[in-house]
Structures are given as C-alpha cells and as structure tokens.
Amino acid sequence: MIPKRYSRRGEDISPPLEWSDPPQGTLSFALIVFSDPLMDGGGNWVQWILYNIPAETRALPGNVTPDADGWLLDGSRHYDNSWGELAYGGPNPPHVQTFSYYFVLYALDTTLDLEAVEETMRADGSLPWIGASKAILLEAVEGHILALGELVGKYKED
C-alpha cells in the first residue's frame, strides 16, 4: 500500500526508490509512474516521468523536487504528468476504489529527447489525450531498453 503522504491527498511528495546495478551499456534510466486505466476508457493517468537519470544512479530520495523547468541538479529531467506538471503527482483515485500504481524503471542504451518525440507524434496525429506523456516516453524508449524493473503499489483513501 502506498502511504497517504505520497498521494495528492497527503503531502504529494515522491517516495524514495532504490534499484540494483543495471546491465552493462546502460547510459541512462527513465522512470514512469502511472495508474490503472481510467474507468471511462481514457487510458492511464501518468503520475510521474523522470528521464535521463544518470547511469551511476541507484536510488532516488523521497521528495524529489525539480527546478521550475523540471530539471534536477544531476541532469535528470521531468516530463509532463497528466496534470501538466513537470513534477511528481501522487495518487488521487476515486474515493471508493483501490487503484494500482505502476513504477517502471527502464535501463537504456541512450539518453532521451522527449520533446523531439512529442513533436513528431503531434505532427502525425498519434498522440492520445489522456496518457499522452506515457505514449511519448514509450515511443522514445522503444529499441533502447536494456532492462526494466516494475514495482506495483496500491492506494485507497482511508
């Protein structure tokens, strides 16, 4: 269960995360956190995207806070979540339901340029409304994934 402090109904801070050594050739990591699909069929709500995390990184502290442009001091960069924020946005499901939240970390053989991928996908009309940032990240990592890890947390309002 995801503690309330990591939700939009709590402190809305990112949880601490750790991972082990990646495969040889890893040049960066990308992290995405998204919810179960929405009940209206609109796709997954994206809570957090952090990309170009340096290859030597093995953990993120709690309460990762970017600058106004979404950057961290180590060169990692936030991308829009489904609220249009360049930051972590915690769980905020309907009050009566338990939702799953998927934390997926990709070890990549490259660094990413999500803005260029977004521009291409907008030009060809292939972006969905909800979950657009997830679609952009998945397009960008395609063919570059050396390994991935997934952690599933659940959240329900008390």
Number of E-type strands: 7
Instruction: Return Rg in Å.
Output: 15 Å
Q: Provide the domain count.
A: 1
Q: Tell me the overall shape.
A: globular
Low-pLDDT segments? none
Going by helix content, strand content and strand pairing, the class is alpha+beta
Mean pLDDT reading:
92
Sheet-strand content, in percent, reads 25-35%
Oligomer: single chain
The residue fraction in helices comes out at 10-25%
- Strand arrangement, major sheet: 5-3-2-6-7
Give the termini separation: 11 Å
CATH superfamily: PEBP-like
| CATH architectural grouping | Alpha-Beta Complex
Largest beta-sheet characterization? 5 strands, antiparallel
Give the CATH level 1 class: Alpha Beta
CATH topology: Phosphatidylethanolamine-binding Protein
Number of helices: 2
Order of helices and strands: EEEEEEHHE
